[in-house]
Amino acid sequence: MEKIVDDELKKAYKQLKYWGIAAKELSDSKIIERVELLKKAPRHSAIDELYSSKYIWGVTAANLRNYDLSNLPIDLLYRTSFSNKTKWPSQDKLPKGFHPDKIIEQAKTFKGLGVEKLHEQGVTGKGVTIVYIDKPFDTRHIEFDSKKIEYIVRGDGEFNFHGYAVAARLAGQNMGIAKDINMIYYACGGIGKYNDYFTDYVSYELKILKDIIKRVENNEQIAAIGVSASISYHIYMLKNDRLKKRFESTFNELKKRLDELGVPLIDSETFWDKGFSYCFKIDPKLPNDYVDNYFDRFSAMSNEEKMSVIDADKCIPLVYTLDSYKYENLIGSASWSIPQVVGLYALAKQIDKDLTFDEFVEITRKTLDPANIHGVRLINAPNLIKEVQHQKEVKAESTLTISPEN
């Protein structure tokens, strides 16, 4: 098994022009200028250029052993993605205080929001079943190999970094918000190989929803469905108007049936509509008081009205490996934040199996942290769960029947 993965990693190394900045470019003033721009204007629009494949992978698979990086600003390296596979020069050739291995070890267990405290108390999502729909990933990676995952893949199942990220944030052993859930994972492989891209994608998404409905109707207990995309948007992108109308009608019928069954569909549309958001740190070494929201454009809400998770200063399992991780502080997205919200809902469902998603949203908003210096209000997971427990007890008391006096 190790040899297969090694061969896959070698294939990835051949794509270095897509996987990382060339070592000689690390000292390029243009890259430093981009980092300074990000620090001064920390909004998503400021880093659009960094979403290109050249920058998204940083130095993930680069060999830097022959370079002296000691004079580089430490913030530059903190904001450059790297991994256990990055080959660094000796410590004296790195900026003082920059220890990549320690950074990865710390970041791969960082969940934020106080979730670690809940895990210590046994609130881990145990006994809750969640469906998630995204790209294929390798369940043999150490982040997942001890997990209870029903993995359903269509097509070639070629691994995709996005699948690793969302699965790890939801249920990973180190990173997962709800690390002990039962996860049913539908991996969308081969999209675009059977038809045009969006026709293919929507067809499979609707097929999955039909399958989930059938499972619930057969008394399978499923708490929620997470999707790191918008099925409505995928339908909107269809070029064939007749097909668009048919898919839209089918999707609405499926959503209605899921509502009747009490299974919320938590996708990017739900994420924004309910007022969730995500944050990053202008400086990864600063405390959470300094996190700032990525997006303003998808919501009319102010920062103080949004319910924010942290999607930065974290790792993802490195694609094509069994035991490596990629650190990042630049790249974050709603799609990687949705599984965190789904995970929090799973924790709440462990406490109160009858809790609806709308009730969860209401309690989440009620228990947010106070606004920080940027007006951001982070979700406070311990307070959230404490209030879920409290409201469960109140509901139980209200249902007690008091016998009349004789």
What is the fold's blueprint, element by element?
Blueprint: H1 2-13, H2 16-19, H3 29-40, H4 53-56, H5 74-78, E1 82-83, H6 100-107, H7 115-120, E2 129-134, E3 149-154, H8 161-171, E4 182-188, H9 197-217, E5 224-227, H10 231-236, H11 241-261, E6 265-266, H12 268-273, E7 276-281, E8 291-293, E9 307-310, E10 314-317, E11 325-328, H13 334-351, H14 357-366, H15 381-398
Parallel strand pairs: 2-4, 2-5, 3-4, 5-6, 7-9
Antiparallel strand pairs: 1-11, 7-8, 10-11
List keywords for this structure.
single chain, 15 helices, 3 domains, 11 strands, 406 residues, 3-stranded antiparallel β-sheet, Rossmann fold, 40% helix, disordered N terminus
Report on this model:
This protein has about 400 residues and is α/β, with parallel strands linked by helices. It folds into three domains: about 1-100, no CATH class; about 115-270, Peptidase S8/S53 domain (Rossmann fold), CATH 3.40.50.200; about 275-395, no CATH class. It contains 15 helices and eleven strands. It has helices spanning about 1-15, 15-20, 30-40, 55, 75-80, 100-105, 115-120, 160-170, 195-215, 230-235, 240-260, 270-275, 335-350, 355-365, 380-400; strands at about 80-85, 130-135, 150-155, 180-190, 225, 265, 275-280, 290-295, 305-310, 315, 325-330. The protein has a five-stranded parallel β-sheet with strand order 3-4-2-5-6, with helices on both faces. Strands 1-11-10 form a three-stranded antiparallel β-sheet. A hairpin with a 7-residue loop joins strand 10 (about 315) and strand 11 (about 325-330). Mean pLDDT is about 80; it is low at about 1-55.
